Amino acid sequence: MASTTQDSNAAGSDVAEGGGEAVPEREVLTWGDFGDATRELAQRIADDGFVPDFVIAIARGGLIPAGALAYALGTKSCGSLNVEFYTDVEETLPEPIILPPLLDNEPLIGKQILLVDDVADSGRTLALVVDLLERVGITVRSTTLYIKPRSVIAPHYHWKTTDRWIVFPWSAKAPVTAA
Fold it and tell me: In 89-99, which positions are buried (b, 16+ CB within 10 angstroms) versus exposed (e)?
């Protein structure tokens, strides 16, 4: 398993500049590590003999990993399901909510689906979507880059286990705004 590159605040509870509060531990995923992680996951999936007909991302966090895995596995059919749970860093809604537009399940019935998210943190989002798909007769295998020990569901495949807050390269900076 590859290790992640960590900045000065990722290795532990360092003191913020100026001697202020302790900075919480962070797991920092670089773009390079992301490339390695998705190739390793794709190889595990292939070695397991699982050939997905569709790769489905849990948006937004799973969009980029799902695209990378679809390319690595040679799967051309992709889709996404929008789920809102996190509202800010370590802040969630009471329950995950599926947002429109909804996924058209009918073409997926009887197919092999690889469901992708960035992290199984509490696992509640992943569990909700797996249950939703399995209830209509869809065969699902799930994968995440990370799993946290407290997750209520273990994905079939994951790259790394951590209990730290994860900084992903695609969400490390604030959204851009008009100048």
Answer: eeeeeeebeee
Closest to 125 measured CA to CA, from 97, 103, 149, 99? 97
Long-range pairs for 101-108: beta carbons < 8 A, 24 or more residues apart: 103/56, 103/79, 105/133, 105/136, 105/138, 108/54, 108/56, 108/133, 108/138
- Entry pTM: 0.83
By DSSP bridging, strand 91-99 and strand 78-88 are antiparallel
DSSP 116-145: EEEEESSSHHHHHHHHHHHHTT-EEEEEEE
122-177 residue pLDDT tens: 999 999 999 999 999 999 999 999 999 999 999 999 999 999 999 999 999 999 99
Asked whether the beta carbons of 24 and 12 are under 8 A apart, the reply is no
CA pair distance 78, 70, nearest whole angstrom: 7
- DSSP state, 24? P
Neighbour count for residue 148 (Cβ, 10 Å): 19
Name beta bridge partners: 22. 15
**CB 102, CB 81: distance < 8 Å:** yes
Asked if 69 contacts 143 with a C-beta cutoff of 8 angstroms, the reply is: yes
| Three-class DSSP category at 65 | helix
164 three-class SS: coil
